[in-house]
């Protein structure tokens, strides 16, 4: 890939990016999902299903299609990689009553995916408990091939970890434009994946919440565009 | 240089002296008309006489109309005593009024103006007749700046005359007390009506008028307006449309006599006007000389950015220590008030101002109006010239200062139009649905409503007189449950039916949220800028956590969030007339200290992009193609046009010129429709799509008021030559079909429009009870919501509302359609081997403009390729 001339726009395929973590090969997808080829597992975080209806309950009548849209995009990502396992890294449901509020059609869509794949719910702060009727395994964290998958990243110097929770987003300015997009952020030893949910916002990776993770050391980011996933030099990053 | 910087925007001698010394400016001299004594009680007649005045014809005409309670539109030029004419009927009526006859709180007259500052000024002027005649009438203002305690008191014990803004009326109407508050209301005076009607604010105000009539059926309205092209729209606005399907009912109209012809000059200096930009920096020495020759000069500019720049330039020239002040909308209220007071007291030589001073505020004795940059329409020009010399009998004097060479043509066209007294034609539009949604929620907050009754009430407001029942019901459903095809939110409904079929708000939280979010002005989020001294200043290079905390400091004003976002600590920018060093951002406030950087970065404010009005565009085209007229133009401009004639071509009036040429490795296609920036931006977007399909590999485009340039990687001249691009086909009207649809569905412009509609309609809360929502979160979630709605519910009423807005306001599609029709078969193409003279001002705008969604993906791609390049080197 690196042999291509940078000027030849369109020559690079930015649809997905290879990311190496503690010597293991992963593929970061432009949808915000992370695929682990050797495990045939798709990792997604922070679906926040039924966030729309959660707002509606408080009086703000956001369109009720966020769950449908999130599940549609998830099904697409599963198909793209032909994943055999799906690992949801916590905050899959926006609140404790969220699953009950799901439209039956959406619950059905979820069940169809679960029939095709092994399904693992890692719990998060929004969904510390996940009802049994939702199917799949429920677990606080799991370790596969020495890599721990959990919702909330641990403190400084933690390695061999993939987490969500922070909703990382990166902002760059070029030629007077400012772009702020969800992103993957990692340093080869640990990785935080973006929030997959349709109505989720983002936290700037320069926010102090990220400081303990990388201890002021180097990290890399991959920003989500409309058509691809783009590695961006950290010197281009701007705070909010 | 710093020592010459003003400490703030107020002049040095801004001490206020008693307002009573001033005469009410609106009625300085009277016309020699026959007075109608019976209409005027003795006390009033004596007062007029004591000042040596006689009531003017239109003032007595309004008193006459008021006698029969006839709603009336008064059309009068500035300086005709318009405001006094509006208030006279109320003052006279209030004299006869008995407190014992009151049914409610005693509020008699509402005065509504589009600007807070105007209400404050008019209230001040109104005190003079009230005091001098010894009338027992209380007149107070109510704006967003009024203290909460006073606002609460005004609801229970209102003054007889309340001067306020449309937003406050909406809030007052949504309060359960509204029937008591408005029970005695007799008159509503709508000042500067031409500036409100025809906008979303105007829609909301008209709905509120319909509501006020419910509380006070005897209500009379008086509209005050500058000369407008189509007064019937304003006349219909003022009264209830009782049979909207059959006829339009019009209020009565009174037109005041026009004053002397304005004296307009265009600054034609030896110094040639620059190729592009709007700052007119070149002309500042001449402007400075003009200020010296006059006693008070108002310098109008189109944007706040220009205001800052012009002010800065004038201060740099200010060797005579002239008292020059700055006045624009993002300055702190207190500072603006100081400038206004100083103007009124005659302590100033010049004020640089934007539209915050645009409307009928009249302070002091302005004897010259300078307009920097071309006025984008002749009504605007006439309005601004109206600032100069408020004595009708004497001509107003104005100086137009073109900012670039195209603006020389535009100023010329505006000059001709103003001399001919031509007015811009505002496009008629039907009432916005997002505004209706907000109104319906407000109505429900006041008391439960019957949908049938409300439908009739809404249709009595002129902008909504063609609204059909089905659409109204969809809007009600939207307010109640979101109106989604997937009916998931019945249990969360904000409106619930009573047993008798009326609808009421579900709970108190709904009303609270309405009050926090009412209004139709969706600004880019604003951030307060505070001036900090050395103490608060972070040592340069220090890490944020070791710097002393940023806090305190005087508020200089407010800046758009996106501008602050571009700054990094240590960068200089010009704001509030000072060069500032950005220190940092904390929560919702920005901190800055004084700096002395040369060549400062100037705020790029968003506001003030007015399209060239249609008839001015025609005049510009006419001047351009009429070679004989060139010799009346300044030499640099006529030379420029002659060079264009020689190197390329001058189009005929009915033609559009299209040039293609290579420049620094890119191939340009430049077209000159003269249809205004909005239409050109839309055209640019659509042409880019078409050129992409034709394989021309366009990379970007730029548009200004006069034309547009698209550039790409392929030799476009060659493609046209080989017939691979056919210009007649490229500019075919059908681009407004599928291409427009496809572009809209993916453009950020639609998202922005949708955001405005979503906020106004109450889908997204600007402020949520209990917690402040930051602008960024709003931006983010509306984009997401737009995408979701487009995919799952594209027929949703808010998508419909956003589309209607985009088509009229942001895209100028009607105008583009007319243009494409007009030029069919009249495209003159010239292939050149180098850049043409006429294209230079347009090409120079490259880099200042955005490219849209396509370009954004490119941005990420470039950033990523940068990284790859870094990795390889």
Helix and strand layout, with pairings?
The complex is a heterodimer of chains A (240) and B (873).
Chain A: E1 16-21, E2 24-29, E3 34-36, E4 41-44, H1 51-57, H2 66-81, E5 85-89, H3 98-101, H4 104-116, E6 118-122, E7 137-139, E8 141-144, E9 147-150, E10 161-163, E11 168-174, E12 177-186, E13 190-192, E14 203-204, H5 211-214, E15 220-224, E16 229-232
Parallel strand pairs in A: 4-5, 5-6, 6-7, 9-10, 10-13, 11-14
Antiparallel strand pairs in A: 1-2, 2-3, 3-4, 8-9, 11-12, 12-13, 12-15, 15-16
Chain B: H1 42-50, H2 57-67, E1 72-75, H3 82-96, E2 109-112, H4 116-132, E3 139-142, H5 148-156, E4 161-164, H6 166-173, H7 178-182, E5 187-190, H8 193-196, H9 200-215, E6 220-225, H10 231-238, E7 252-255, E8 263-266, H11 284-293, E9 297-300, H12 304-317, E10 324-327, H13 333-344, E11 350-353, E12 368-372, H14 378-385, E13 397-401, H15 405-419, H16 433-446, H17 451-459, H18 469-481, E14 495-497, E15 503-505, H19 508-517, E16 526-531, E17 554-560, H20 561-566, E18 572-575, E19 578-586, E20 589-594, H21 614-625, H22 635-647, E21 656-663, E22 666-671, H23 677-693, E23 698-703, E24 708-712, H24 716-721, H25 727-730, H26 738-746, H27 748-761, E25 767-768, E26 771-772, H28 775-792, H29 797-810, H30 813-822, E27 827-831, H31 840-843, H32 853-872
Parallel strand pairs in B: 1-6, 1-7, 2-4, 2-5, 3-4, 5-6, 8-13, 9-11, 9-12, 10-11, 12-13, 16-20, 21-27
Antiparallel strand pairs in B: 14-15, 16-17, 18-19, 19-20, 21-22, 22-24, 23-24, 25-26
Helix pairs in contact in B: 2-3, 6-9, 9-16, 11-12, 14-15, 15-21, 16-18, 16-19, 16-27, 27-28, 27-29
- Helical fraction of chain B: 40-55%
Radius of gyration of chain B: 28 Å
The percentage of residues in β strands of chain B lies in 5-15%
Helix share of residues of chain A?
10-25%
Query: Low-confidence spans of chain A: pLDDT under 50, at least 5 residues?
Result: 1-11
**Could you please say which CATH topology of the largest domain in chain B applies here?**
Rossmann fold
């Amino acid at each position: 890939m690196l042999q291509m001339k940078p000027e030849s726009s369109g020559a690079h395929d930015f649809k997905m990016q290879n990311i190496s973590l503690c010597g293991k090969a992963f593929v970061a997808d432009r949808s915000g999902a992370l695929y682990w080829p050797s495990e045939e597992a798709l990792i997604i975080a922070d679906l926040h299903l039924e966030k729309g209806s959660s707002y509606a309950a408080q009086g703000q009548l956001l369109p009720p299609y966020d769950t449908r849209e999130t599940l549609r995009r998830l099904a697409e990502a599963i198909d793209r990689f032909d994943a055999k396992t799906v690992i949801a890294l916590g905050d899959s449901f926006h609140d404790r009553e969220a699953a009950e509020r799901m439209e039956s059609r959406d619950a059905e869509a979820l069940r169809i995916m679960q029939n095709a794949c092994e399904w693992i719910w890692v719990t998060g702060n929004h969904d510390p408990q996940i009802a049994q009727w939702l199917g799949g395994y429920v677990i606080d964290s799991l370790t596969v091939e020495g890599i721990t998958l959990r919702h909330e990243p641990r403190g400084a110097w933690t390695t061999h970890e993939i987490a969500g929770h922070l909703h990382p987003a990166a902002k760059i300015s070029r030629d007077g434009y400012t772009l702020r997009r969800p992103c993957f952020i990692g340093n080869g030893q640990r990785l935080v994946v973006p929030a997959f949910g349709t109505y989720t916002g983002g936290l700037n990776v320069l926010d102090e919440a990220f400081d303990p993770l990388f201890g002021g050391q180097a990290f890399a980011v991959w920003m989500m565009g409309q058509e691809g996933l783009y590695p961006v030099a950290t010197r281009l990053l701007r705070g909010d | 240089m710093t020592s010459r910087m003003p400490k703030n925007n107020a002049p040095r001698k801004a001490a206020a002296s008693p307002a009573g010394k001033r005469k009410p400016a609106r009625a300085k001299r009277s016309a020699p008309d026959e007075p109608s004594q019976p209409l005027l009680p003795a006390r009033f007649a004596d007062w007029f006489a004591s000042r040596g005045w006689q009531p003017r014809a239109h003032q007595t005409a309004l008193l006459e109309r008021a006698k029969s309670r006839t709603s009336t539109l008064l059309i009068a030029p500035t300086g005709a005593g318009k405001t006094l004419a509006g208030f006279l009927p109320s003052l006279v009526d209030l004299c006869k009024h008995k407190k014992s006859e009151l049914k409610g709180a005693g509020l008699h007259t509402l005065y509504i103006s589009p600007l807070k500052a105007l209400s404050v000024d008019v209230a001040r002027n109104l005190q003079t007749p009230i005091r001098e005649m010894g009338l027992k009438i209380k007149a107070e203002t109510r704006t967003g700046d009024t203290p909460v305690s006073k606002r609460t008191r005004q609801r229970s014990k209102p003054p007889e005359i309340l001067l306020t803004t449309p937003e406050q009326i909406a809030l007052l109407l949504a309060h359960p007390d509204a029937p008591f508050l408005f029970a005695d209301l007799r008159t509503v005076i709508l000042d500067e009506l031409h500036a409100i009607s025809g906008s979303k604010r105007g829609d909301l105000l008209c709905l509120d008028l319909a509501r006020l009539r419910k509380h006070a059926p005897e209500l009379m309205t008086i509209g005050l307006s500058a000369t407008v092209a189509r007064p019937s729209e304003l006349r219909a606005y003022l009264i209830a449309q009782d049979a909207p399907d059959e006829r339009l009912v019009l209020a009565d109209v009174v037109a005041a006599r026009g004053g002397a012809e304005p004296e307009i000059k265009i600054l034609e200096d030896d110094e040639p006007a620059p190729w592009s930009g709007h700052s007119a920096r070149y002309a500042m020495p001449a402007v400075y000389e003009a200020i010296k020759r006059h006693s008070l000069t108002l310098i109008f500019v189109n944007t706040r950015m220009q205001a800052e720049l012009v002010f800065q330039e004038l201060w740099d020239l200010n060797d005579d220590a002239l008292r020059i002040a700055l006045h624009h909308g993002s300055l702190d209220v207190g500072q603006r008030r100081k400038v206004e007071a100083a103007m009124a007291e005659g302590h100033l030589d010049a004020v640089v101002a934007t539209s915050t001073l645009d409307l009928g505020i009249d302070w002091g004795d302005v004897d010259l109006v300078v307009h920097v940059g071309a006025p984008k329409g002749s009504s605007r020009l006439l309005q601004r010239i109206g600032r100069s010399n408020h004595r009708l009998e004497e001509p107003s004097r104005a100086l137009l200062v073109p900012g670039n060479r195209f603006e020389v043509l535009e100023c010329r066209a505006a000059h001709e139009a103003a001399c001919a007294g031509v007015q811009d034609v505002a496009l008629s539009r039907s009432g916005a649905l997002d505004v209706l949604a907000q109104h319906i929620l407000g109505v429900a907050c006041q008391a439960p409503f019957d949908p049938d009754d409300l439908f009739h009430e809404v249709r009595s407001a002129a902008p909504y007189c063609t609204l059909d029942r089905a659409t109204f019901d969809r809007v009600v459903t939207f307010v109640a449950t979101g109106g989604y095809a997937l009916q998931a939110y019945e249990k969360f409904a904000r409106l619930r039916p009573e047993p008798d079929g009326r609808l009421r708000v579900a709970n108190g939280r709904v009303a609270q949220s309405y009050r926090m979010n009412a209004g139709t002005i969706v600004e880019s989020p604003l951030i307060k800028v505070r001036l900090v001294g050395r103490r608060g200043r972070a040592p340069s290079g220090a890490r944020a956590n070791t710097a002393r905390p940023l806090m305190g400091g005087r508020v200089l004003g407010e800046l758009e969030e996106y501008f602050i976002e571009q700054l990094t600590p240590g960068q200089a920018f010009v704001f509030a007339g000072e060069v500032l060093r950005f220190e940092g951002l904390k929560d919702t406030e920005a901190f800055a200290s004084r700096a002395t950087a040369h060549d400062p970065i100037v705020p790029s404010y968003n506001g003030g992009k007015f399209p060239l009005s249609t008839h001015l565009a025609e005049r510009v085209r006419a001047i351009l193609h009429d070679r004989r007229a060139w010799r009346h133009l300044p030499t640099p401009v006529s030379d420029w046009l002659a060079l264009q004639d020689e190197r390329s071509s001058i189009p005929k009036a009915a033609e559009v010129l299209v040039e293609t040429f290579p420049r620094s490795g890119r191939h340009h296609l430049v077209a000159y429709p003269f249809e205004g920036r909005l239409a050109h931006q839309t055209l640019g977007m659509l042409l880019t799509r078409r050129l992409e399909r034709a394989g021309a590999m366009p990379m970007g485009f730029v548009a200004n008021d006069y034309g547009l340039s698209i550039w790409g990687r392929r030799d476009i001249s060659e493609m046209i030559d080989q017939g691979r691009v056919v210009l007649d086909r490229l500019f075919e009207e059908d681009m407004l079909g599928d291409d427009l649809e496809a572009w809209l569905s993916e453009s950020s412009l639609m998202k922005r429009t949708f955001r405005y509609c979503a906020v106004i309609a109450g889908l997204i809360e600007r402020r949520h009870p209990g917690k402040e929502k930051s602008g960024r979160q709003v931006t983010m979630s509306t984009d997401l919501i737009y995408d979701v709605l487009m995919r799952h519910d594209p027929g949703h009423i808010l998508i419909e509302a956003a589309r209607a807005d985009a088509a009229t306001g942001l895209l100028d599609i009607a105008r583009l359609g007319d243009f494409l029709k007009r030029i069919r078969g009249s495209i003159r193409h010239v292939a050149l081997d180098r850049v043409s003279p006429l294209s230079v001002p347009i090409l120079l705008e490259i880099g200042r403009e955005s490219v849209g969604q396509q370009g954004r993906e490119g941005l990420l791609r470039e950033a990523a390729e940068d990284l790859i390049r870094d990795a390889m080197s």
